[in-house]
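Q: Sequence in, structure out?
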Amino acid sequence: MFSKKNKSIVKAIILLNLLTFLSSCTTSYNVRTKTAKIKYISSSSIYHRPIIADLDIKETKVTGIAISHGGQSVETVSSSAVANALRDAKADVLIDPIFDYEITNKKTTVTVSGYPGTYKNFRALEQKDVPLINLLDGESNSNIVQPPKTPTVENNKPKQTFSRILNTVLIVGSLASLVSLLLL
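A: Exactly. Output:
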């Protein structure tokens, strides 16, 4: 059905389609993570004296922004926004944080604002501190920032892009060429 010359042209077209398809399937990631406040003393064989500290809270709010272009959860981006605010304010904790979420396609932008607090005057727990600790144990530490729960996002499906359509066409074309070559 095909001459020898035509078969080599078909093979070249198939090879070109496959190479184009494989080169279009690359993925790049730019991941940046940050962490905050961790305490690992949990073994029952290690005993430590309780340490308390004063918390100096500034009266002016600070703001932190984090942006993700896909691949990170809202919690991770929120934690990065808090970490950015704390880094800029040189603070240890963010009090009464307010989160603003903007989610479009694969881009997530989180802005957080709150009052920066810094721990100072670290000291061993003394008897005079016990009544205050007992009073505070009855309250939750809801003012200290925790990563927020994922907000409900409506219609967060990514749109079909030209590259996805082109990849689909190339795959179908490559498969059709391969099938026709095998049938020869």
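The helical segments are 4-23, 74-89, 130-137, 162-183.
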